[in-house]
Q: What sequence folds into this?
């Protein structure tokens, strides 16, 4: 358990340092309203990160999360708002589609990176067809939910905590989650024990699709409108979030709590750079630099761990 | 929670599995032909035979993973329905469990979580506490004083500890009780005292009405634990008799190998004069040119680390050398030996690519010639060298790794327990090859958990808790001295 703690310590530490720096630059951020502003866009990023984590957990990678979230956002801002029944049916079908992709990748032995890259164009195309120009509106309940002002702690803090805990319960504690991690760890062992790998992989993808849908809905609830390109950055952000949070590309090693913290850190990094008055042209590069810094620190820690 | 207790429900000598004239063919290859055997409760069957003799196929037919192409397998456990269900499901409900040679745990899960994988009908509610108590109970029963936590990640455990966990899980209590446990080389990475605990547990398990198939290349263990010995050869059951009717020599003969004679004399005469010292480690380990240096001691006491440290200190450079100083033969094939997607040829030539490439382009003809040559010399059993490496049996994969190292011109060869799961015949060949290579001035650093391998060495360092506890040379290299050096300090420290 101690090593697990070590693995989670680094993301926590990097978030704390970044948060400290932001508060130092902009003390007014240290308020209910300030925190809400800093972190509310982290909610959809955290959900997308959970989706990506499900895929990384089974040793695949999903390059279509960004466009999938955009697609879900477009569906939420149009169909769900206008004809709810049809809208939810489309979202359910999208989750089923994700499961089918997961099954297809396994059954045909295709590389996930290629299939999901292809699917990213499919989702992107569908999103443009649904919403050719930015617009739409969130269903009222969603808007109310996302603008909720609970006492003492802002929603932007509560929501990631809830997401992290639920994902942790599912992935790390439930017996289904353990099997899914097992697929990433040693697929042959599960196969020998008589488990259906197709079914498990499809489940992992379906859960990923589910988180993707939630991410799209949360995004529309926050921004009040959608756009076919609204979440393109999420693909890379979600991968970075999982890795930052102590996850690894192979071997089914992931940490839901760490990944949510990773997502928060990445969101905060953007704000931090704005507070530094860095020109937006430099921001992506600077974000990358922060990422490299944290990952380098992790490498040092794990090396020391290995030496000890 | 109330499965029938095997000690009361199954009377001794009731058959658990019956194989009746079973044939198994993979395409044109007849892996198993005409195998008939009845395994009874309370029996421990020692299954021996060299690689490719059909042991794995036999075992996989018994545990239902393979459906035989001819003949019948019947499970006579009372829980086993004999209808049209898949063989593996039938074997599973008949209480047949297997521990395979290649470790089959999930390294990213904890010890208790790994129980979830074979236990398919585990209750969902409070499954963690159930799994924890089950795993710990099983570990305590098989390996008292194991010191393994149920919450430890399997990836953080040593290879011996992983094997212990895997064995314990096979014996653990579940929905269907274990009636027949198949152990494929269970002691290959366990040290002597842990292996003893396992053998003792097998005896207890059989006395209580369980059955065991025990596959091992360590014949001493087989003699010790088996009540009946089944010898396989070329896909057939060559002999199946009570253990008492076999002698050590009989067995080796039945497997198709001649008992080597005058081993010691042969070894002594091969001992050429040694050159200057070529390696010295901070720990005191040293080697001279042309010397075979053994690293002995109980498993996991710093031998592998010492080798890795030495290897990395001599090989990790920004620029790869044309002529590497050190080459490495891995023991954990899957982890640091084999490139699973590559062919036999490319796996074999990996370490020597530089030697026959010009301006960065590989000379394919030279590469193929080299591979052909080594296939002959080391006897790799393969149709075509362009077949994928994973189509080979474990022992043959290991031969490829040996060939990879020996083919290079590196003056020092580092071997990290490279004979895990390799059959006796191959071992003898490899010993001979190592001897002759050493005679030409190559130095070998050889970590082994098997005593007879250490006896092949010119000088032996016995490790204990990461330090060298004894240095043995010449006539002092005996099993007794090694054991003494491995254990002596343990008593002193307590």
A:
């Amino acid at each position: 358990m101690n090593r697990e703690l070590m693995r989670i310590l680094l993301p926590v530490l990097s978030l704390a340092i970044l948060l400290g720096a932001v508060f130092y630059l902009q003390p007014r951020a240290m308020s209910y309203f300030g925190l809400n502003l800093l972190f509310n866009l982290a909610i959809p990023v955290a959900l997308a990160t959970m989706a990506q984590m499900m895929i990384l957990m089974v040793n695949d990678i999903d390059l279509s999360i960004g466009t999938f979230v955009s697609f879900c956002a477009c569906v939420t801002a149009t169909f769900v708002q206008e004809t709810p029944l049809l809208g939810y049916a489309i979202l359910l079908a999208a989750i089923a589609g994700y499961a089918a992709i997961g099954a297809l990748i396994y059954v045909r032995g295709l590389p996930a990176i290629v299939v999901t890259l292809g699917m990213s164009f499919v989702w992107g195309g569908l999103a443009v067809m649904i919403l050719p120009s930015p617009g739409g509106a969130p269903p009222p309940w969603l808007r109310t939910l996302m603008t909720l002002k609970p006492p003492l702690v802002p929603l932007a803090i509560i929501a990631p905590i809830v997401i992290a805990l639920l994902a942790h319960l599912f992935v790390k504690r439930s017996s289904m989650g353990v099997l899914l991690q097992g697929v990433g760890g040693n697929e042959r062992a599960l196969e020998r024990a008589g488990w259906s790998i197709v079914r498990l992989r499809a489940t992992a993808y379906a859960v990923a699709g589910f988180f993707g849908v939630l991410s799209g809905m949360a995004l529309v609830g926050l921004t009040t409108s959608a756009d076919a390109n609204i979440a393109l950055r999420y693909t890379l952000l979600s991968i970075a979030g999982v890795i930052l949070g102590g996850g690894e590309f192979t071997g089914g090693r992931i940490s839901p709590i760490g990944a949510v913290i990773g997502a928060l850190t990445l969101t905060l990094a953007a704000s931090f750079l704005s507070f530094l008055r860095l020109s937006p042209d430099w921001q992506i590069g600077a974000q990358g630099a922060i990422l490299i810094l944290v990952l380098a620190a992790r490498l040092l820690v794990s090396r020391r761990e290995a030496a000890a | 929670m109330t499965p029938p207790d095997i000690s009361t429900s199954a009377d001794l000598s009731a058959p658990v599995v019956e194989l009746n004239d079973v044939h198994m063919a993979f395409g044109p290859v007849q892996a198993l032909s005409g195998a008939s055997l009845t395994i009874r409760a309370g029996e421990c069957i020692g299954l021996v035979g060299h690689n490719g003799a059909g042991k794995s196929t036999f075992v996989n037919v018994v545990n239902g993973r393979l459906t035989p192409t001819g003949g019948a397998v019947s499970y006579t456990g009372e829980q086993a329905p004999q209808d049209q269900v898949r063989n593996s499901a039938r074997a599973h409900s008949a209480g047949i469990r297997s521990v395979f040679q290649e470790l089959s745990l999930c390294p990213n899960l904890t010890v208790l979580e790994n129980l979830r994988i074979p236990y398919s009908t585990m209750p969902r509610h409070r499954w963690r506490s159930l799994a924890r108590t089950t795993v710990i109970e099983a570990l305590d029963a098989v390996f008292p004083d194991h010191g393994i936590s149920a919450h430890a990640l399997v990836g953080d455990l040593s290879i011996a500890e992983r094997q212990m966990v895997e064995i314990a899980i096979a014996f653990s209590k579940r929905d269907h009780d274990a009636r027949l446990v198949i152990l494929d080389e269970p002691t290959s990475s366990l040290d002597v005292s842990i292996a003893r605990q396992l053998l003792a547990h097998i005896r207890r398990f059989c006395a209580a009405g369980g059955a065991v198939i025990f596959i091992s290349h360590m014949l001493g263990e087989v003699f010790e634990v088996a009540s009946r010995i089944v010898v396989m050869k070329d896909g057939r059951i060559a002999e199946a008799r009570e253990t008492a009717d076999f002698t050590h020599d009989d067995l080796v003969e039945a497997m198709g190998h001649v008992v080597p004679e005058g081993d010691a004399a042969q070894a002594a005469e091969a001992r050429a004069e040694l050159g200057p010292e070529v390696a010295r480690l901070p720990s005191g380990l040293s080697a001279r040119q042309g010397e075979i240096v053994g690293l002995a001691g109980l498993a996991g006491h710093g031998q592998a680390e010492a080798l890795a440290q030495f290897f990395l200190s001599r090989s990790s450079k920004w620029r790869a050398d044309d002529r590497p100083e050190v080459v490495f033969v891995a023991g954990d094939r899957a982890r640091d030996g084999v490139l699973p997607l590559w062919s036999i040829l490319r796996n074999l030539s990996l370490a020597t690519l530089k030697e026959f490439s010009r301006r960065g382009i590989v000379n394919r003809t030279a590469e193929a010639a080299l591979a052909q040559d080594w296939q002959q010399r080391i006897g790799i059993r393969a149709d075509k060298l362009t077949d994928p490496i994973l189509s080979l049996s474990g022992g043959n994969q290991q031969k490829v790794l040996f060939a990879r190292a020996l083919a290079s011109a590196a003056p020092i060869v580092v071997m990290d327990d490279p004979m895990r799961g390799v059959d006796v015949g191959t071992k003898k060949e490899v010993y001979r090859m190592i001897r002759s290579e050493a005679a030409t001035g190559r130095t070998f650093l050889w970590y082994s958990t098997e005593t007879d391998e250490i006896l092949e060495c010119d000088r032996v360092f016995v490790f204990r808790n990461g330090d060298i506890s004894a240095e043995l040379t010449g006539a002092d290299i005996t099993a007794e001295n090694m054991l003494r050096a491995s254990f002596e300090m343990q008593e002193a420290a307590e």
